[in-house]
Amino acid sequence: MADKGYEREILLKILEIEGEQARRKQGDALARYNAGKVKHKKQIAFHRCKKRNRWVFGGNRSGKTECGAVECVYMARGVHPYRKNKPDVFGWVVSLSQQVQRDVAQRKILQYLSPAWIEEVTMLSGKRGSPAGVIDQIRVKNVFGGVSVIGFKSCDQGREKFQGASLDFVWFDEEPPQDIYEECRMRVLDRAGDIFGTMTPLKGVTFLYDEIYLNARGDPQVWYEFMEWGDNPYLNKKEVAALTRALDEKQLQSRRFGRFCTAEGLVYPEFDEQVHVIPPFSPPREWQDCISIDPGLNNPLSAHWYCVDYDGNVYVIAEHYEAGRDIDYHAQKLKEISARLGWHTDEKGRLNALIDSAAGQHTLASSKSVAELFYERGILVNTRVDKDLFSGISRVKSYLRGEFGPRLYIFEGCVNLIRELKGYFWGSGDAPKKRDDHALDELRYYLMTKPHNSAPAKPLTDVQKDKARLARRLGRR
Q: What InterPro entries would the database entry show (predicted)?
C-alpha cells in the first residue's frame, strides 16, 4: 500500500508540473509560435536563413509581420533557435510613421515579449500601456544575464535621426525610403549585424526591387521570400476565396501574393524562381550540347553552357558574364570554365559555340571580326543564329511553361541570367526595353536552334550484328 501511495504522490506531482508548464506556455506567445502541429513553413524558412539581409515580400495577412517581430524578440532575448546568440543586443524597429509603429510593430513586439522579460519601457509620448502611447525603447532581460535594447524609429523622423548608433539588427516593417535604408546599413556595419524587412510591395518597382529582388549588386548576403495567403495555414479558406474574388488582378498580385506590380508588365511572367532555378548537379557528359555567347566589350559579354536531357529538357549549368574585357580574356575564361565542367571539344581541343551574327561583321577599328578573333583562340563560333525577337521570346516562353510542365532549368550560380529574366519589361509599343538583356539574347539564340538529344541506341547483340552484315551483303547483290 505504501508503494501505491508513493506512486500516486509522484503521479500527482508530475501532473502538477505539467499543468504549470501548460499555464506558462499559454501565457507565452513566443513558446506557442509555430509550435503546434500546424506550422507556417515560410516563417520558419525566414528564421532559419543565415544571410544578413533578409526580406519577406508578403501579401496582407500572410504572416510576414509576425516574422519580423519574433526575430527581434529571439535576438533580444538571446534565444534564437537557428543562430548563435549573444548578450546585450541592440536593435531598431523601423516603421513608416509613429502611428504605424504604435498600431503594428510595437504591438506585435509586446505580444511576443512576456512582461517578466521587460526591465524598462521608455515612452516617446503617452503612458506605458496606453493605446495611444508611442514607445522609444524597450529594455529586455537577456538570458545571458545582460540587458538588450529594442529601439523604435519612424521614417518620418528623417535620415538624421538614424545616424550614430552601432546596431546588431534593424527590422524594417514595410518599405523604407532609400536614404534611411542606406543609413541603417551603415549602422550594422561594425557589429556585422542583420538587416531584415517585411513588406507588401504597393509602391511598384522601387529601389528594393533592384537591391533585393534582382540583387543587381550580386550581394551573397541577400535573401528574399514571397509569402502569400495560401502560405498562412491559420487563415480561413472561405474568407481567402471571398476576398480573392473581390480584388482585381493587380491588387491580387501585391495584396495577396506580395509581388511587385508595374505598368509595363514583365516579358516573362512565366518565370518562377522557385520552379526554374535548381541546385547544381553533375549532368551526364552525353547531355552536353553547346555554349551560347552574346559578345560585349564595354557591355557585358554573356556566355552560358547548355545541356539537354533525353526528354528535351534544357539545363543552363554555368555562366560567364563580365564587362570591360577583351577577347583574349573572355576566350581564356570560356576555356577555364569548360575545363572545370569537363566540357566536350573537337579532336583539336576546340570549343563550339553560338554567337550573335553581329560578331561576324568587320569594323573600322579592327581588320578582323569578333568571330574570327574567337576562332583564332580555339573557340569555333557559329554566327548563323536566328535573331527574330518575337519568335525567340515565344520560344523562351514555351520552354518556361511547357505543355506538360517546364522544360528550362537554370543552376543557382547563373545569377545574371536569373536577374535578367526577373527584370525584363515591355517598353513602349510592342518591344521590350533594351536594358540588361545580354544573357536573354544568347538564351534566345540557343533555344531557337530547337535543341534535341536522342537517347543513345542500345548496343547491338552478336545476332543483330550478323543479321546486319547479311542484310548488307544481300543489298549489294
A: P-loop_NTPase (IPR027417)
Give residue 472's pLDDT. 58
The whole model's pTM is what?
0.71
Those residues with Cβ within 8 angstroms of residue 355's Cβ, 6 or more apart along the chain or in another chain: 292, 293, 294, 295, 370, 371, 374, 381, 382, 383, 385, 442, 445
Stretch among 190-194, 201-205, 426-430 having the lowest mean pLDDT = 426-430
What is the CATH topology of the domain spanning 276-447? Nucleotidyltransferase; domain 5 (3.30.420)
Cβ atoms < 10 Å from Cβ of 436: 17
Say how far apart CA 159 and CA 181 lie, in whole Å: 9
Q: What's the rounded Cα separation, in Å, for the pair 254 and 263?
A: 13
- 133: amino acid identity, one letter: G
Q: Residue 5 is which amino acid?
A: G
Distance CA 304, CA 292 (A): 6
Distance, CA of 397 to CA of 270 (rounded, Å)? 7
CATH top-level class for 40-256?
alpha beta
Q: Is 49 helix (H, G, I), strand (E, B) or coil?
A: coil
Domain spans of the chain, in order of start: 1-32, 40-256, 276-447
**Do the beta carbons of residue 298 and residue 277 sit within 8 Å?**
no
Let me know: does 162 contact 153? Beta carbons within 8 Å. Answer: yes
> Residue 228's closest CA among 261, 248, 200, 190?
200
